[in-house]
Each structure stands twice: as C-alpha cells, then as structure tokens.
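Need tokens for this chain, all 92 residues.
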Amino acid sequence: MKQTKLNIDPEQSKKYLVMQKHVLRSISDCRDQGLFETELKKSERWLLRDDLMTLVDWVLDTFGTVFHDLEHRVRQLFEYLFGSNVVQVKNY
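Here are the structure tokens for all 92 residues:
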C-alpha cells in the first residue's frame, strides 16, 4: 500500500507541475517510452492529487499519439491512486 502524501505545499506542487511538463516534453523527443513512464511515475511524489490529474490529462492530450498504448499504461501506473474510476480520460 502506498503512503499518504503529507506536507505537500500546494504552491510547490504547482511549480513542480510546470517543471515536470518541461521534463516530459524533453524526454518525449528521445522516444524512450520506458524513461517517459518512469519520469511520469515520479510525479506522484511531489504533486497533489489535483495537479497529478492535471498532468495525466496533459500527458494524454499531448503524447497520446506519440507513445504506443499510453492511455493503458497511464491507467496501470496510477490505478491505485484513482481507484476504480482510474483517470477520467478522453478517447484517443
């Protein structure tokens, strides 16, 4: 079971969200899906739930056609966090 996030400052979460978007854009240029997913997974350490959901939506909108089966992989990576509803994603 994952630990509950404690003491995450909302302002820091927003700053990390912006930074993580930049990092993921850079990684996507390499077309290394494993590295991309690893970096995406790290986001949960520093983002509040709302910011993480924002990042996931952005990732699917931005990279949904870049990486093979990205929506399915995102659902697997964050299933425990979002429960049975997982992520409210659009059809890609």
